[in-house]
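Archive entry. Fields below.
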Amino acid sequence: GAGVSQSPSNKVTEKGKDVELRCDPISGHTALYWYRQSLGQGLEFLIYFQGNSAPDKSGLPSDRFSAERTGGSVSTLTIQRTQQEDSAVYLCASSFIRGGLETQYFGPGTRLLVL
Amino acid sequence: AQSVTQPDIHITVSEGASLELRCNYSYGATPYLFWYVQSPGQGLQLLLKYFSGDTLVQGIKGFEAEFKRSQSSFNLRKPSVHWSDAAEYFCAVTLSSGSARQLTFGSGTQLTVLP
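PREDICTED_STRUCTURE:
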C-alpha cells in the first residue's frame, strides 16, 4: 500500500515568512510523529500525536513551531516567522501500536531552506 | 538521559567485504532497537528491529543485527556489501514502557563502498 507522503518535497522561503508542511500518514496508523534533521543537530523529535489524545509537544524548539492533526489523519507542521536556523529536513513518521509494540515508517521529508 | 552512540562517523569498505556498524545505547529500561538507512535525498527506510526474544534479528537487504544486553550494543552486520548499500545508517532506540514513544537516534554512520 501507499507509504507516508509529505508535501512539498522542497520549500524555499524568506526569513520571517510562515511555512506549512504537510504529512499524509499510512492509512490506519494511529500515531504520527514529526522529526527534524539538520546538519548540526542530527535527527530530533518534534511532536507526537496518538489518536485523540493531547499531542506530546515536548520536542518543539520554540513557540514559533506548531502542529495539528485533523480527523486523526493528515498533519500540518507550521513554522511562523521562519529563521535561517530552521533550515532542515522535516520528516514525518506514522505507526500502528499493537500490544505495546510499534514501528515507525517515515516519509521522504520536506527540505526547507530559509534565506 | 537516554542516548544512542554510533562511534563511527564514516566507514569505507570494498564491495564484497563484510560490514559491521556499531551502535551503543544508554537507557535505564529495556529498549526497543531499530536500524534505519537513508539514501541521498530520501527518507528513512527500516532495515530491522528488535523488541524481544532471539537477540539476532534478520532484516531486509541481507542485513542482520545482534542485541547484546551486557554490552548495551546493537551492531548491524552484513557479510558481503554491495555498491547499492552506500548510504547513511542510523541506529534508533525507544523505550519499551511509558508514554515517551519517540525515537532517539544516533548521529549516523556514512557508508562508502569502493568498487
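CURATOR_NOTE: Residues 52 and 72 of chain A are 7 Å apart (CA to CA).
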